[in-house]
Amino acid sequence: MAAIAGTKSSLTWAVQLSTIALVLLWIFPTVGLLVSSFRTVDQINSSGWWASLTAAEQNEVYRAADPDENRVADGAMFVVSGNVFGDGSESTISVWGTSSRAIDAFQAGDTADLGDGETISVQENGDYEWRGNDDQISGRGQRIFATITAPPDFTLDNYEQVLLSGDSTDSMAKAFFNTLTVTIPATIIPIVVAAFAAYALAWMDFPGRALLIAMVVALLVVPLQLALIPLLRLHLEIGIGKGYLGTWLAHTGFGLPLAIYLLRNYMVGLPKDIIENAKVDGATDFQIFTKIILPLSFPALASFAIFQFLWTWNDLLVAKVFLIDATGETTVMTNQIVELLGTRGGNWEILATAAFVSIAVPLVVFFAMQKYLVRGLLAGSVK
Amino acid sequence: MNPAIQGLITIIVGVGGCVAYFYFSNQFLDKVIFPATGKNAGRNISRANMVRPWLFLFPAIFALGLYLAYPVVETLRLSLTDRDAGGAFVGLANYNQMFSEPKFWEALTNNFLWLLVVPAFSTAFGLLAAQLTDRLAWGNIAKSLIFMPMAISFVGAAVIFRLIYVARPEEQAQIGVLNAVWLQFDGGSGSFIMLKLLPAIILLCFAGLCLYVAYLLLKPYFTGGKTGGIFMQLLRFIFVVGGAYLAFESLGATLTLFGAELPYGEPQQWLTIPFFNNFFLMIVLIWIQTGFAMVILSAALRGIPEETVEAAIVDGANPFEVFFKIKVPQIMGTIVVVWTTITLVVLKIFDIVFAMTNGQWETQVLANYMFDKLFRANDWGVGSASAIIIMLLVSPILIWNVYNARKEMR
Q1: Burial of A119 (0-12, 13-18, 19+ CB in 10 A)
Q2: How far is B72 from chain A (nearest CA, A)?
Q3: Chain A residue with minimal CA distance to B178?
Q4: pLDDT band at A186 (very low <50, low <70, confident <90, very high)
Q5: B260 touches chain A (CB under 8 A)
């Protein structure tokens, strides 16, 4: 509005800057997760994700190559040499040591005396030379504790681990398909049921219509928590038990009030003339519904579909109560992540990647269909 | 059978079954029961039209009844019966048992804390974002980024924020932003300004704002203005009491803040600090719900007639006056709707607490308390009783919604 008044360019700047600050604040957490999911374990543990583009200082333990295979005779002595990083690494060593109690005993380039003439030297670029007599240069390789500065390092290994490794505790692949199996029927079935009901409530005249609409509005806010015990008992009694069928039915029931409410509000607004003309021309209600109302209601159907999709995809409670049994075969992604939080609480590369896998699909749907989501929100709550 | 195939079959059977049901039941009605031919054609058509709505409605009513209406009654019954004695009526014994548990009161207090804080901050940030992005060239991009957390599951958000709150031992590099920032403070004058003075000013501003809102809500009673129906009055009362309480609390907090010795230089396990950890959990929900508030309020701001704003500017109102005295009063109805909608979400909040602390360190909330009773303690009686408490908390909003919807129908 200030722009209309045509003054206060300083205010416009303040608005621009505050908006930028607010947006950055809001995307900061998600970006953190995304960046972390591409970092290596060492990098995650050695620096915050915001420092991921700068070199990180981290403490590492290396072992010199196996003496029995790699040692080379040099006069009476034997020598094992190589590079702690392997080849092609741009990391550098600043300080190092040979014992876990003094990891910073030597500078890069120093030579450490290990006693009885045994020595080891480590250069800044990681080259080492371990020298000693036959007895000393044998068994296992000498350990080298080094503080290194590693350049930024991004990897897809975390995704490979989470999606393809098949390790049952880390794997999200099965949970991903389970979630999909829950979501798709649980999105489509309520739409069909609700569309017919909404048409009846919007365009058919019968006693008790107002009461039914009021009931739908009331059921809109009934907490899911109330339904858990009675329905679980019911499912167990009639033999559905815990499984996909019960979950689909439950999601259908819980999604219906919003579906009917949204669709009815939309259908009431459709032009009356079209429907009356069709009736005059001899169309039955069923024909009017399928040939006229459904195609015209597409925006409202899409709105609800997105809602229900996001809700069922992101749901934890219904899945925990109605789906996941003791075998854990039917675990969904949200549940898998909660379990990872318990078993892998400190392994952020796994956690971040698993979480990002689970939020990727909703994010894609969100950005692709945002228009309908906003429209649905406006229809659903502004009265 | 592979669940994916099972799912596909369910879609086909479910959708096909629904469509077939609607199609054949209509056909059956028109062709067999009340055929529109013969000498009773007219009467039959009108009879068929009386039955048809119920054909359209039957599946929905059945599902709603079974999955939402019946459970309300059944939960109420379960909360009054004893699980061990095969469903014997025990009166209010379950409630008594629940009321004697400190964990329940903790959950209830925390829920009220959530109720006060989350809707207020979500709506305030939403309003701020809506107003800021209103006339910006890149406003839509900004909005969609702030709106984005809506698509993220509570569990996903819990992981995102655990990464922010994570603490590592002092000698290791901090990978959580909050601790990394915290360790920058060393107790010097910079720390005093950022951690004592600034929060104190914010708290005082907040207290002032609360009192001002309470004053605005009470003003019509002194000046004889419109106070609205009984529900509006009740709402006013709740907000006034809540506002006064918040103002009182924030004034108290300001005093405590200056007396507090802050543990500078030590990484903090944020989620284990009693009382304050509730706020760290609430931030997650505020982060998610702000986008929702922003979308609705931004549409409402667009709907304000330009003339009112222009007139105010011509009369010499500054941008803040335009916002608080012209725009906000006009979208008050929408603000209330946003507030109540977020309140509903807060009352049922479960996933965030479950995934982040599971109610430990005094962060229990009702929904998680109930889940705990149901599936860990296996106590369906007390579990049902706590579900009924949630229902009771929701019911004012339920009645208010129905009241509004009926008013609109007329």
Answers
A1: middle
A2: 6
A3: A48
A4: confident
A5: no
